[in-house]
Amino acid sequence: IYNFLIAWNDYLISLLLLQSEKMFTVPLAIGYFFMTDAIEWNIFMAFGILYSLPAFIFYLMSRKFIIGGLVRGAIKF
């Protein structure tokens, strides 16, 4: 679960390895959005919401496993 969330937010590896704009990941596309002279904030905020939805849905599906693992590590039988 943590590996998915870390890989989803990975920016540096994608920046170094991907050469074509057609292959850019979502964090790279958002980063290149700031390199323009005029930032359209409404489009940027829409990108941010769409970018966070898969990680949020994944968290909601695996929430009981995350909490269960934290509780099992805290209680000693």
Give the C-alpha Rg.
Answer: 17 Å
Runs with pLDDT <50, length 5+?
none
Overall number of strands: 0
Structural class: mainly alpha
| Average pLDDT over all residues | 82
**In percent terms, what proportion of residues is strand?**
under 5%
Q: Could you spell the SSE succession in H and E letters?
A: HHHH
Distance between the amino and carboxyl termini: 26 Å
The portion of residues assigned to helices is over 70%
Overall shape: elongated
Biggest sheet layout = none
Helix segment count? 4
Tell me the layout of helices and strands.
Elements: H1 2-8, H2 12-17, H3 26-33, H4 41-74
What can you tell me about this protein's structure?
Helix 3 packs across helix 4. The chain is built from four helices and no strands. It is elongated. The model has no long low-confidence stretch (mean pLDDT 82). The chain is mainly alpha-helical and 77 residues long.
Please outline what is shown here.
With 77 residues, the protein is mostly helical. 71% of the residues lie in helices and 0% in strands.
Keywords:
single chain; 77 residues; mainly alpha; 0% strand
